[in-house]
Structures are given as structure tokens and as C-alpha cells.
## 1
Amino acid sequence: MIAMLRGRFDDTSGRPYIEGRLILPNLNICGDISFLVDTGSDVTRLHPIDGIRLHIDYDQLSGDAESVGTSGVSHDFIEPAVVVFSEPKRFLYVYNITLRIAPYDIEILDLPSLLGRNILDRWRMTYNPPKKSLLFKVVSADVTVPL
Amino acid sequence: MNTDTMKQVILNQLGNPADIDRELQSFRKSARVLSSHHPRFIDRYQKKWVAVYDGKTKAQGRTLQSIWRQLDKKGLPREHVIVRYIDRNQRTMIL
């Protein structure tokens, strides 16, 4: 049987999302994130709306990774992270990544966190908005856990 | 660290896989509710923050601080709640 994850399209904006579990072991933080699927982003990036929801203490963060987007240059924090996606009642797919954490900025509070190519490259995506079908065939994961 | 050790470290960080699966299904349900009911949300919660947990709206307010206060008062786990700002005139996103 093919390993398959299911995403969704937001009805109003049409943006593609997938939900996953984020674990930040060094900060003892764990929570669920609705990631915007962003093939234009090289990396997975946590945005302030999720950071403050998960009680991240921004004063404790370290690292300075420069990133550039349409709005200019940003200096992100860096944190080792584990991201988990579930194929209900079949498997968990687990990815060990270096997470970028965007600095707190009130101007981007409505911006969802991004799932970037450091994970998306390990899947094959079927993107079909008219049929509201967003599927990811899992090619590889760091750990696969049977349920 | 070799691959097997790394896998074991990751597994230790995960917790109970069945719980993760169940909680992620509930979170997905909340995300879908927020998304699929959006036209109604826009009328009811225009220019407000809304929090959905286990498929139900649990908090709404003009500020995020008010959302956190309501969630904490109700003892709801923020880590499993989805929060969105509702606005008829959504900003165009170019990432």
C-alpha cells in the first residue's frame, strides 16, 4: 500500500495546508501546526502566531540565519526540531530538521508557518485545487512509526 | 550519532504514537471546520481572532491576548488549538 498524506485547501483563500506535530526538544515544547505548503521556501519556518501559541520564549532563542523573501531580509532563530505527520491509523512519518523561527513581529501575526522544501522534497505532491485534492506520497522519512 | 541511535532518540522524544495520531486528527478537524465554515465565520467574527479546539469555536476576541486569556481560563491546551484572524478583506500573500 502507498504511503500517503492528505492536505487541504482553505475554502476562502485557496491556500494549501497540511497539519503536523512540532516538537522542540531543547525547549521542551510540543504542539500542532497548520503549515502552509510552500514549495518556494527552502526551509520550514515557524511564524509568530504559532510561536506565541506554543509559549516560545523568544529571549531564549539563539542562532542568526539570514533569509530573504519578497518583503526583504530577515534574521531567523535556529532550533533543532522534530516534525511528525500522520496517516491516520496507519503510520507516523517523522522528520528531524533544523527549524527556522521568525522573530516576533506584529506585522506578520496573520502569516501561517511554512512547510518548506527540506521536507516537501521527500514527498511527491498531487496538487488539484478544482477537486480539492492535495495528496503527498511519502518517499522517505527519518523514522516511520506503525500505528 | 549513528542512524539507529538517532532514531531511538527521536522515538523517545515523540511520546505515545497513538496519542499523536488521535490529537492530530482532532487538530485537522478543527482546521477543516475553520476553513469550511469560513463564510459564516466572516459574518460572525469579522475582524476578530477565533480559536477552534476539537472542531468547536472556543474563544473569540479583538486581540490575541484576549484569546490566550480565554483559552487559559477554560483550561484548554493551546498546543492543540488553531487560531486565525478573520477578515473579509484578507491580505494577499506573496511569500
## 2
Amino acid sequence: MDSPATYLHWGFIYISWPNLLVILGMIVLFAIAMIAPFPHSEGTDDVNAK
Amino acid sequence: MSTQSKPASWTLRVRQAIDRHLPMDHLLPDRQPYYVGSWVYVFGVVTIAALVWVVVSGVVLSFFGPQWWHDSSVGRFFNSLHFWAVQLFFLFMVLHLWGQYFMAGWRHGRAATWMIGVVIFGTSILTAFTGYLSQQNFDGQFIALEAKDAMNSAGAGAFFNVLNFGQMYGLHVMLLPIGVTFLVVAHIVLVRVRGVVKPIDAEGGARS
């Protein structure tokens, strides 16, 4: 962590690779969370729904 | 106008208000609506779990002090634990924000819940910044020297002297974490009071 990060310079986009990888990882995680099946249990019904 | 007179005892009035707005089956529900069965709803819980680790590791760091967290292997471990727990806290807080933004989580009387979340986000950033200033190393000194110009140009230099370690450390370990924790509790209580917002599709396309 003592050495400076390398940067992606593409047109007006200028971002360090670690930051870019974290953002891409978050987008992938968000997409997986939306499409991955969630293990359903007995405790899901309309209680508390408004 | 109600014919019933208000009880004289304020403790009774508070208890009745809590019973009315936050009954125990809402505060600690054992069943949830079917649409809560999605991994998107897990992001908020993971954020809270990360916050617990941040607070616990932070308490240990504040107990032993800067020399310990820089010079001893156990200290460096807790220093890293604190740092990476903060990274996870922010990462999952932003994922939680994305999820709530796209499902318009502020609908049907949940504006206060959303706005408290916004304030939590801002307060957390302030807490993280004061944390960088509390490191007691060259990195912290460099950040303080750069940050002072930003604070002075914004007119906040008279109130927040980022070169003053005592002030920044006090804010970081006391006022700001208490603020974040209090706001998180208020955020969760409001979620329990109102319940989880229905997905937009479940309302027949209504986007109110």
C-alpha cells in the first residue's frame, strides 16, 4: 500500500484501477443479489406489510 | 375532539404511544412479507454487521492507543480489522442505497427513514475523514495538511482545525460514532414502524 496505484486513463475518464475494480465488483454483487434465488423459509407472509 | 382525557403520567403516555406505533411483533417480527425474500434486502443487515465490527475494533484501538496499533502485531491486526470493516461498511451501505433508490424506498410515509439514511451516509463520511486524520502516521499528516486548505476555503476552518489531532480524534471516537449509532437505531426503528416498502410492481404499477 506504500506504492501509488496505477491509473486507467481513457478519454476524460481517469480512475485508479483499485477504485474501478471495487465499483465493478459492487455492480456485479448488486446484479447477483437481484437474480440469485433466495432460500425461502416458513417465515415469509404478509405480516407487517403496509 | 376526543372525550377521553390524556393520562397525567408522561411515562404512561410514552408507553401507550410506543404500544400504538411500535408493538413488539413489529419491533421483533418472526415473519416477513414474501417480497423480502431477496438478497437485496440483506445489504442493510450486512452494513449493520460491519458497523458492529467497526465499533468493537475501534473500542480496542482507543483503549491501547496509537503506539500499540502501529508497533505491535496484534495492534496492527486490530488496525487492519478497523480499516477493512470500514471498507465493508461503506461498500454495503452504498449497495443498500442503490437497492432502496431503485425500489423508491421513501414511498408511503417512509421519507423520514430515507432522509435519516442520507444523514447517516454524510455523518459516516465525516467519521471516516476524521479517522484518516487520527492515524498518527505520515499519511494522516499529509491528509491533514491537504484538508486544511479545503476546510479554510469552505469557511469551516474556524470550527474544525484538521491539524488539531485532539479535536479530530475526539470527534472520531466520541461524537461522530455516537451520532452514527443513534441515527442507525432511529433508522431501524422507523423501518420496523412502517414495515418494508412494497416493490413497485406489487402495487399494480403505482409510482406514488
